[in-house]
Amino acid sequence: MMEHALSQGDIVVATLRKPEVLSDLAARYSADRLLILKVDVLKQEDIDEAFERTRSAFGRLDVVFVDAGYGVLTEVEGTPDDKAREVFETNFWGATNVGRAAVNFFREVNEPGKRGIILQVSSVTGYHASPGFGYYTASKHALEGFSDGLAKELPTPWNMNICIIEPGTFHINGHKGAVVLPQHADESFATSALRQTMEGAVLEGDPEKFTWIVYEVVQGGKISKGLPMGLDALEMMNLRIENLKATVDETNLGMVSGFGEN
Predict the structure, then answer these.
(1) Which of 221, 227, 218, 215 is nearest to 6 (CA)?
(2) Spatial CA neighbour of 163 closest among 115, 98, 119
């Protein structure tokens, strides 16, 4: 996403824990086009400093792309508390603290009426759980709830938008960074679905297409609250909708039948 924005002539502030990873880009772009900052989203002071340095360097900020996160793969029962909490510290608290700081920047620093956009990267698991990723899924559910709630709190005159991006499986390095913990000691308890997950899912999505579509959505100015990405994400969302509709229909039928009996 960063490289695509730079190729389109945009100014980028890149934040990451290991700035040296971008040394090649730092050599290709001047400081007035690319500002690279060391940020650990677990540290509020890092987040605050990044926004302050952005203000000092450029005086405004139009789009914040929040993609901090990682997964832990094992059964819920086999996940140690400290590992589960670490997932939430990054995927939920890290991401939401960036989002809160972005809203503050849009309101206090940008010119009145100038829009600001938060692209909050969630996951298809934010609405469709995957076995073996229980706490990762929970963190994305929480992130979606936070983003939805925050979006509803923003007054229309502020002209801010939050888009929750929900990717399916894509060919990215993030999958290599997932922490894999031992499976449940009782082999009879480990589900076949979890085994399939641990053997490796098919990564269907093209990250180049993902980048282009998200960029074009921003440029087009019509920011939807949700943006499922990938055929598998759309399939899972449709399945979720069907399940919810079935639940509603069954509940309505039960209520009508119950009232009729009374």
Answers:
(1) 215
(2) 119
| Residue whose token pair is 């298809």 | 124
- Determine, yes or no, domain membership for 186: yes
The answer to whether 136 is a known catalytic residue is yes
Residues paired with residue 74 on neighbouring β-strands, in sequence order: 133
Task: Indicate the pTM of the whole model.
Answer: 0.83
What DSSP state is assigned to residue 182?
Answer: P
- The set of residues, in sequence order, having a beta carbon less than 8 Å from that of 211 and lying 6+ positions away, is 1, 4
Q: Is residue 135 part of a domain?
A: yes
Q: What is the mean pLDDT of residues 204-225?
A: 84
Number of domains in the chain: 1
CATH number for the domain that contains residue 116: 3.40.50.720
Angle at 100 between CA 99 and CA 105, to 5 degrees: 95
Could you tell me the residue range of the domain that residue 155 belongs to?
A: 62-261
Domain annotation covers residue 136 = yes
Report yes or no on 33 lying in a domain.
no
What rounded mean pLDDT belongs to the chain? 84
- Please state the separation of Cα 26 from the chain's center in Å: 26
- Structural element, H or E, at residue 12: strand 12-16
Q: Coil, strand, or helix at residue 51?
A: helix
Run of H or E including 119: strand 116-121
Among the residues of the chain, which ranges form H helices?
A: 2-7, 23-28, 44-58, 81-88, 95-108, 134-153, 192-199, 207-220, 231-261
Q: Which of 127, 135, 136, 215 is catalytic?
A: 136
CB contact at 8 A, 85 and 138: no
Per-residue pLDDT tens over the stretch 37-96: 999 999 999 999 999 999 999 999 999 999 988 888 888 888 889 999 999 999 999 999
